[in-house]
């Protein structure tokens, strides 16, 4: 009888362990690249923000229909024209076990204001004032219409975890751009996952955080194995073969293949990320002449790129603001006229052309290397000889920050879902103090445009604000401040049973914490 009881106990234990093992849900994800750092403030990029939504949590986040949903902040109210009061959820803890308090938000805010990449977004904000452990005031220097928009970029960090020094005497809170720091290698957030293993360029393993506060979430994924697969055909083949469960992006050439394959689902959405080239006026004298910049714009066949390279999976652009944004001006149409381009080059004294260097990533945007090659070929028709170099984004961004080429590709999705953000980062006169123009590798500068942005950002009347932003877009168009190509549409692929359609969004930061898998 004892032997039978013992056997039964072992069998029961084995069955329990087996059930527990079966209950664990692991998914394999393949992106075109992995995050370059674990520091949420090191780089303002899609990879960093995707990481932040997985291992940290914002105060507020966007819904699929671009409304605001409470996250770590459960409520907020405008208490005067320059102050919004937020209340944090009770009982939220970081991965370290430390409790989330208003002091962590205050500490995070100060670090954001010091970040070269993020301080431009937070330029209108003056302070976080702690009211009590779960209440704080977010203050602006003047009335500002984008407070909640910006709050989506506040992912509170664990101030206790990041305080103090490392064994070699460096500050744990140190923010090092493209460098090795404590924050770039270690993290403690409030998000649904922790990073348990990471090998740059090879894989990142995310494990579910047992103490995650959002018990109402449908998410049932326990482990995510993220593998970067740069080559589009290889990434798609991995999904179709069942080697991975979710991929992004799906290239335009394989949309139909993923959609029609038995066992996989294609998910698409219109995109608002503008793909552009910037012309460095500090490196090339000719680029200071608006006629030369316009000639390049006229030489580039945007529609042809969308039609042939993007297979129609994009929207031809002539400005930064997409349709639906306040600054969008439908009267600004794409330029393409090679003869007009040649005439402008001759008028500017460059009929014989000149040589330039061009750099672009080869795993950041859809078909980025192919687009760069096409643009280089188009410029040859107006006697601009291009020396093109493409590289993985982990190597590209440091060279971009160095302004290492005469022409550089950059895509931009407005961080605040607002037209002013494009100008703030891409075409504003570069200013290290404010962070404005942080990604303006063309060194374009127009004080009139900057003044319009500042006025728009201090205007709460949406009709008047729209007029100001459209005038701003018109100035940039007339100046050919940059070369707009197209707005990139979004496509993801998932195996059946991975309900990714519920977690993807126009911002291209799927909320993996809410992912339900059958």
Descriptive notes:
It is a single chain. This protein is α+β, with helices and mostly antiparallel strands and about 525 residues long. The chain folds into three domains: about 25-40 and about 50-55 and about 190-265 and about 495-515, Periplasmic binding protein-like II (D-Maltodextrin-Binding Protein, domain 2, 3-Layer(aba) Sandwich); about 55-150, Dipeptide-binding Protein, Domain 1 (Dipeptide-binding Protein, domain 1), CATH 3.90.76; about 270-490, Dipeptide-binding Protein, Domain 3 (Dipeptide-binding Protein, domain 3), CATH 3.10.105.10. Helices cover about 30% and strands about 20% of the residues. The strands form three sheets. Strands 1, 8, 9, 10, 11, 12, 13, 14, 15, 16 and 17 form an eleven-stranded mixed sheet that branches. The protein has a four-stranded antiparallel sheet with strand order 4-5-7-6, with helices on one face. Strands 2-3 form a two-stranded antiparallel sheet. The model is unreliable at about 1-20 (pLDDT under 50).
